[in-house]
């Protein structure tokens, strides 16, 4: 079968397995009755659908009309979006919660609850909730959560919203795996007494790997505790939570309560906040206790006075990225750093220069006035942060051809190409439709190795932010970061420019440079296009590590479909603790992602689409999807060892899906990924192709040449919705292994007798005896009864993270003879 045919059939199976038909209901709402009817439809939608409720601007006096907890009809998983700020007819939108108000009128029963389950999301954005009254049963004014069938992949998010003058034990109750509370105002609420009282109460799910992202909020002047985070009695999470850049002030009892948070088993970062009082936590020096100086807190105006210490004092970077705008839709970062809290002040603490010409004389002593070279020279001489903006006459784009190497950047410099007239932002993930109106061309000249460079000699305070610029023709890297830290590269295009030569690399993070953020989260305008590089598209080899590469399009033309290969997509060499997430990485001549060198440890490669375009068409990389080599160790490709979230989708690689090569190190876990149409083993250790199990484990070789489990039978129990698999594992004695079972339509055509890891079933554990041997029977959920009978295969991973190759394939047996031929489908 040809690759395209195989891919089409496998993709069809993936759609069947995922159970996510392209179903959605969008309702434009302009009155309370229509809102009630729309929410009432939540439990009527089919599995995998999303209900989007668009609220026309105005006030909705709901009283007790919505006083209920809305569920999707089990077992269907249905997502919900409640979005404010629409014009009449929902033809346009302005995100500002003051223009869309849900008013409970202070009536008993004026509350709202939504519960979801399965792999769907829940989002509330741009809405004010006022005068709600907590339920006598649920005690919350607004309750959003996952039920007992929770999912590690579901996200519950509230952003750019206001909660004022409500009465409840908990004004907002969040409970789930991924909870995000971003850029909201919670103020002047009456908090009723209780051990779990709080204006914002976030509880980790009982049976999911949970995290909380609480950033850029103002939670102030509530009568009870401000933010309370409860890890629940069973929580032991691999996910890193983040509480950053908030203002938590003037709340009763405690502004931040972590007395119910199990820090030993749940990682958490708390930094750059303004916090008055705390319980269960002692703030570090980045968290200020000073008065934020609101304009008029008593009158409900929580904007910042011009002398507020919250202005331009937030973090250089946030783990989960900055919000795209502030609570009222204004520019989120004005000045050198983000403001703490929900509102961004117009005060810009940076000196500003305007680039007005594309002329360049190459003279660093006497550059052309109004040129980029002159602006960088002024920026380096400035005592504080410096912003370079553009206003060059003429059409779009304007092209700067460098006459000589550009001045190094040694200060705190923002180069904002989005200010050039005609610029428009990218509008969706997976492609790049931004209109960039300023470009820099090195023309392949050996005297112009880079466009922008932070040298190793730069002070630790040096920081480069680059937005909205196109780059081509640089022989080293278009942007090379050797010193400083906290750099941000977002919304740029590297390569794929007509009539220009390629860059050797788009971005290189090297030398003694600290963390860099390349791309962004939850903001389409932050996506970078990385195309046509003769070397690595993104090259990271700084020893300090800690960079984030997120939501970029790597190896494609701007349409996100056509090929524009780099030599390889992302190359991490002797660099640690980097995060590579949510990128589209395809068409590259070698591997999509390479982790190499003994210093490459602790890196996370998660949630990426490797080898596929955003429309689902195959765009495979020329070698492995992910290659681990030269002693790279202890890296995570997909889920963490104790979790089932973070998997990548790895498609159509010429070689293996993930290859831990003969030179690779130990402890590299490869878990919960989905593989389609790769040209070799989906998970391969040592020499290319299947490797035999070893007489003893661990052995000498990559991942200790961890043995794979040998399966004997696989039975689909349709009545109970489980897969029952028997087999045996021979490995180290008295050791508990993670066993992962995978479904595939057939055995691997490129590796006789081995399986295809098309879809991960749930994990389980097996423990060897004193002789290192364990026969096992594993029963795991398999809820996809309409899927044709296929084959089952497996990997194991030891406690140190060493994942085996994908093992042998076993044809499924149906326990119901009615369906034994695989054609009848139960209804």
UniProtKB/TrEMBL annotation:
Q: Give a yes or no for keyword Protease in this entry.
A: no
- Single annotated GO MF: lyase activity
InterPro entries documented for this protein:
Beta_helix, Choice_anch_Q_dom, PbH1, Pectin_lyas_fold, Pectin_lyase_fold/virulence
Cross-referenced Gene3D superfamilies: Single-stranded right-handed beta-helix, Pectin lyase-like
Record keywords: Lyase, Signal
Q: Where is the signal peptide?
A: 1-24
Q: Which Pfam families match?
A: Beta_helix
For the Right handed beta helix domain, which residue ranges apply?
111-252
- NCBIfam families in alphabetical order: choice_anch_Q (NF041518)
Q: Spell out the protein name for this chain.
A: Parallel beta helix pectate lyase-like protein
